[in-house]
Backbone:
């Protein structure tokens, strides 16, 4: 079963607490944690992919106009409270295993090395280009 | 440059979609399959995933002992990620064109949905200072 683990960053904290603003050694420790985490998932055969996204200040919202050309506005949506910072797709046997992995990601080290306890959204994946569905 | 194109659905969107006439659901899915094929043939598709209903989603945090604490997803959220594409393109404009094509996926009776598609750049690695 494939799951997506979404790291949601509170939009209100992006300006004050995003990783670029941490002490460099703490950001390095965070990145090293993520590298090690990805390596372990890969070795366990559970890793499908991961991506980190650019900041919300570059985000756009696109809709098709009547003629199919893009109408582009600046994001995020005004009602958004979180911004997706990055995600993992994993392939695991049970939802419980997906939650365990999410808890490890949640405990990634933050400023001063303390676990961040970030909320991680876990959704089952229905269709995937990696399984040839789409 | 890699971009993530995110398609959001309102909380009740999954139920509503499943209540469309069958031929409209089929036309929508056929559009999505063809869209991914075209992107793939153009060498622009990195990956695409469709997510299950938010009813099955959980919010997870590590407890003090590192064990997962699970909860339902954000009760105040009105919109959920329904699916996304990662595309590899030469310019942001091309990413916006592709997003507009996804936005125009057919809805009930066939007219374009004109859904809002969020477009975010994907970072190829950690910020350079932290390497």
Residues:
């Amino acid at each position: 079963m494939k799951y997506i683990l979404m790291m949601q960053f509170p939009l209100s904290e992006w300006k004050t607490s995003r990783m670029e603003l941490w002490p460099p050694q703490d950001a390095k420790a965070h990145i090293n944690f993520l590298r090690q985490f990805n390596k372990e998932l890969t070795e366990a055969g559970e890793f499908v992919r991961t991506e980190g996204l650019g900041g919300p200040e570059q985000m756009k919202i696109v809709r098709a106009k009547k003629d199919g050309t893009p109408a582009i506005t600046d994001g995020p949506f005004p009602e958004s409270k979180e911004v997706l910072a990055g995600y993992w797709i994993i392939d695991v046997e049970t939802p419980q295993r997906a939650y365990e992995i999410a808890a490890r990601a949640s405990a990634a080290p933050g400023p001063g090395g303390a676990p961040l306890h970030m909320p991680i959204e876990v959704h089952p994946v229905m269709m995937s280009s990696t399984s040839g569905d789409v | 440059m890699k971009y993530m194109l995110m398609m959001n659905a309102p909380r009740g969107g999954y139920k509503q979609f499943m209540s469309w006439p069958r031929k409209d659901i089929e036309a929508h899915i056929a559009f999505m399959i063809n869209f991914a094929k075209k992107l793939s043939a153009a060498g622009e598709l990195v990956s695409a995933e469709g997510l299950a209903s938010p009813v099955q989603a959980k919010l997870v945090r590590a407890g003090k002992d590192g064990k997962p604490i699970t909860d339902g997803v954000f009760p105040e959220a009105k919109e959920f990620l329904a699916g996304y594409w990662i595309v590899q393109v030469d310019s942001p404009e091309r990413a916006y064109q592709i997003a507009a094509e996804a936005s125009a996926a057919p809805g009930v009776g066939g007219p374009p949905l004109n859904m809002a598609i969020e477009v975010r750049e994907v970072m190829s690695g950690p910020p350079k200072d932290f390497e």
